[in-house]
Specification:
This is Antirestriction protein ArdA. The chain is built from 22 helices and eleven strands. 21% of the residues are buried. It is an alpha+beta fold.
């Protein structure tokens, strides 16, 4: 059992200094004491207020005293004088706890809280007393009694509805257009939401007419996204597989990661291309973000008050220049203040998960053109078994040249002969335009419309059923058609650059460049003539 004198002896320094407030109360026959500090704005901390209410529940006559503000106490008093002063306050109910809490409580009065509750219910919103009572935000997932059961259930219904609306709104979508029809002035397109599936994208291709026969090229004319700034880094030639890859990564993000991703895009050190953004979504641990910090002063206060960098006494904080300190710190961090908070690169290793070429198999959704039918293996072996015999038969039976049919004129007068010759020529030209050879030429021309007339004719003569023209390196690097041991070779058609007298390869004129179906150049380097020719070398 502690006497009042012994208790005052333990807290005599606090009573004389007049800085802290010391509470005294009795529990049974034993005296107890505990000191408290006020906040910078002369208000109680929420945890101190709760502790004082607990002390009052133990001893309703408890008092809280300060040697500077309370009478019968002073810095020059002896221990006995201090003990007598504390006893006087306690016995006369001076400076009780209720009055002290009321004088230093920053919470709103009960009538104001009830008005706020009524206004919230009238607007159809849940109401919690915790921000008014403790000055702290409540945890929406923990029922702490600060709101009624009805308000708690209403809050969760609203949370579920908000999340459903966010999930219903597409993260990323693009307007996919048929490039061939677009250039013809007959646009055909459809919105595609990413991530998507291969089946859905195939249906879109069918609806907009991309059949890989008459039309095989596409582009994106517009993008939409719930992520600010994302569409600025996408182009009309962005590949659906890459967009699906990015869409799936964004779909798997939690709210905190999404906020950091938005800020990282604005930060911009890894946002130059779609490849960069895909890698950025998988390297968010390389960034630190402070959502509550939006300017230099807030950053300075966060460093000092939350991180204690540097550690300062409470009195020094009154004179500390937070804005200047936050400005210097942000310059050293090379950080940026964004709408989502302050962000900077923490210099962790940034891993290039995506190389810009090979999209992981699980994210590939783009339909592929139909593959040509492979020849019957038994027939191939039979043909390969007797190459000499086949060559001999070919040599013995050369192709007969087309017979020349002379024009026999029946007219006698020169004017009538000229008219007869003109009629015969017009008839021959009409037959040419109705022939299979001209139909084949038009078919080749539709596939290689960027080629010169000469190269198109050469392609039609050598390989009229060709669907793609590219150089050897393009076939190997872009289409993964590599030379495999023991497999049959095929031939491809490709323009070849020529070499000048110094041995340096020169580019062909623009009208003779070979472009594959996405519009990219693909040349086969090596010695060759000035015209399109057959190239051998890749294997299936």
């Amino acid at each position: 059992m502690a006497s009042l004198r012994d208790t005052v002896k333990d807290y005599q320094d606090e009573l004389r200094d007049g800085i802290a407030w010391v509470a005294f109360w009795k529990q049974g026959r034993s005296w107890n004491a505990e000191y408290f500090h006020l906040d910078m704005d002369d208000t109680l901390y929420p945890e101190d207020r709760s502790r004082l209410e607990e002390i009052k529940s133990i001893d309703p006559a408890a008092v809280i005293l300060n040697g500077y503000y309370c009478g019968h106490l002073g810095e020059d008093m002896s221990l006995d004088e201090l003990t007598a002063g504390v006893r006087y306050h306690y016995e006369n109910s001076m400076n009780d706890i209720d009055g002290f809490i009321g004088a230093h409580d920053d919470r709103l009065p009960p009538e104001v809280i009830e008005e706020a509750r009524a206004a919230a219910h009238e607007a159809g919103l849940p109401f919690s007393e915790k921000p008014y009572r403790d000055g702290e935000d409540f945890n929406p997932y923990v029922f702490d009694g600060s709101m009624s059961i009805e308000d708690f259930e209403l809050m969760h219904r609203m949370i579920e509805k908000e999340r459903s609306e966010q999930m219903a709104e597409p993260i990323l979508s693009g307007y996919l257009s048929n490039l061939g029809k677009y250039t013809e002035g007959r646009p055909a397109g459809e919105w595609v939401t990413f991530p998507t599936t291969a089946e859905h994208l195939k249906e879109v291709f069918d609806r907009i007419g991309i059949d890989f026969k008459h039309y095989e090229e596409w582009h994106f004319t517009e993008f939409q996204s719930t992520i600010p700034g994302l569409t600025e880094h996408l182009s009309e030639y962005s590949h659906p597989d890459e967009l699906n890859y990015l869409g799936k990564l964004l779909e798997m993000q939690f709210d905190d990661d999404r906020e950091k991703f938005i800020a990282a895009i604005e930060y911009g050190d890894h946002a130059d291309s779609l490849q960069d953004i895909i890698n950025l979504a998988q390297n968010l641990d390389c960034y630190w973000i402070y959502p509550s910090v939006h300017n230099e002063e807030e950053y300075g206060r966060y460093l000092v008050d939350e991180l204690e960098e540097p550690e300062l006494p409470e009195e020094a904080k009154k004179y500390f220049m937070y804005e200047e300190y936050g400005r210097d710190a942000s310059i050293n961090d090379d950080g940026m203040f964004t709408e989502k908070g302050y962000i900077y690169n923490n210099r962790n290793t940034f891993t290039e998960w995506y190389d810009g070429r090979d999209v992981p198999e699980e994210y590939r959704v783009t339909p592929q053109p139909p593959q040509p039918e492979r020849p019957d293996p038994s027939k191939v072996e039979m043909d390969a078994a007797a190459p000499g015999q086949r060559t001999a038969q070919t040599a013995e039976q050369p192709q007969e040249p087309r017979p020349v049919i002379p024009i026999v004129l029946t007219s006698e007068k020169p004017a009538e002969k000229l008219k007869e010759i003109t009629d015969r020529l017009e008839q021959g030209i009409a037959e040419l335009f109705d022939s299979e050879r001209y139909r084949e030429y038009l078919k080749v021309m539709s596939k290689f419309h960027n080629y010169s007339f000469r190269n198109t004719v050469l392609i039609a003569m050598q390989k009229p059923d060709a669907s793609l023209v590219a150089g050897f390196s393009a076939w190997k690097n872009n289409f993964e058609r590599n030379v495999m041991k023991g497999q049959k070779g095929i031939k491809i058609i490709a323009p070849s650059p020529y070499k000048n007298q110094t041995g340096n390869a020169e580019n062909r004129p623009a009208h003779a460049e070979a472009r594959y179906r996405q519009g990219r150049e693909a040349r086969h380097r090596g010695k060759g003539s000035h015209h399109t020719r057959l190239q051998g070398g890749i294997r299936l």
